[in-house]
Amino acid sequence: MRGTLLLVVGGIAGLALGVGAQAGATTPYPATRVGVSRASLVDFAQLSRFDAQRHAYGPLHPGLMPEPQERAEPNVHITVASPFAPPLGLPDGPLSAASPAPSQGFLAQRDAARNGTTTSFIPPDTAGAVGPTRLMSTLNSNYVIQDRADGKVLASVSMSTFWASVGAVMPFDPRVLYDPYSGRWLVAAVADPGGPASAVLYGISDSADPTGSWHLYSVGVDPTGATWADFPTLGFNQSTVAIGVNLFTSATGEYAGLSKLFVIDYPALRANAVFAPAAISIPNGFTIQPAVTYSPTESTLYLVEHGASGAGTYYFFSLVGTTLAGGASLTNPLGPWTIPGGGDLLPQRGGYPVDSEDARIGNAVFRNGHVYYASRPVDRARPHRRVRAGRPDRRPERDRIQRRPLVRLSLHLRQRGGRRPGRLLGLPLDRLPLGRLRVPLRHRSAQRDARSGHAEGG
Q1: Would you call 172 helix, strand, or coil by DSSP?
Q2: How many domains are contained in the chain?
């Protein structure tokens, strides 16, 4: 079985395929150990007090973050009948429970200037995670920790201050996750865009309190300086933390024709051991997303990658230790789809449209034997209202339509023509049916996918 069909709940569509009997190529990709360049121990609260003493005066001005090879994904008309037309058949029956409502809602951090400066970065590159008592939101400007009960800001540290101890030059593209099994926070980023010192940055909190101490690390991307890393992805299970990056040439800024996956031993990371990660090169790979594994016993880390919307393709990988397998092109049984083209087209409240031009997978979740992910193609017959979610599962014996409640963690949406503060909805962990689902609303680099022969807008 390559995949099953789809669901629609509040405009979100879902896809299922088997992960137990993995389809496609199984030849492992070679892995090479890479040394940790720098390691350090920092105290978040202490850094926050340091930042609070820094002041800048003057008008706010934009700081443009790297967006290599930005271009639209080709619009291709859907060639199959729309699956969204009612009624939808549900072989598995109706939903047993309604999607949980937010237990709390308050403003997350504003898209403001980096602490101690007058620079606000475009795009902000939002990310966030929820712990038992704390929320942590990360932008290209600042890392902010809030009390989950009332949204009170407990600490704020600029991205440059946070990563300064590992020698990071212009860190950007932050990611953050919370691991409920170990009670730790995980962060990742990249540094020195377009430069020879391009690095992958990662860190782990020493406890469930993100305002406490953190161990931080830096790993060089390319010892020759010929390529640099962009758009990190982050996922884990209890044995492995994986960070994926796209590589671009330092000379021209063009896509270098491969991505890299940095594989970190998670038990060693939790023990604060400086352990050399493994680097795996994936030819023609682009934005390979490891799953956030909500299982204390699942030993395989699954990864997904968008292929070509115009061909309806995607890729599926499995990682055990440092052995990565998979990557054959799989086809969505619904066929190809399209997005509405370049520009800020998707409507939202307040009158500031959202950029819709990206179908890359920005987050994936493994839970109860299934992998869930989302991307944003649009049915041209019903424009601006569709999000497609993939759901590889372990029951390949039959095709079926699934309906599942999906939860969105909304932080701040990239907008042109004005900014408005986003909202962070605090949801209790025991009520999240799919874990944390984040759909980033921005596009970046063109995907040149030799496996499918289609060029993708990234």
Answers
A1: strand
A2: 1
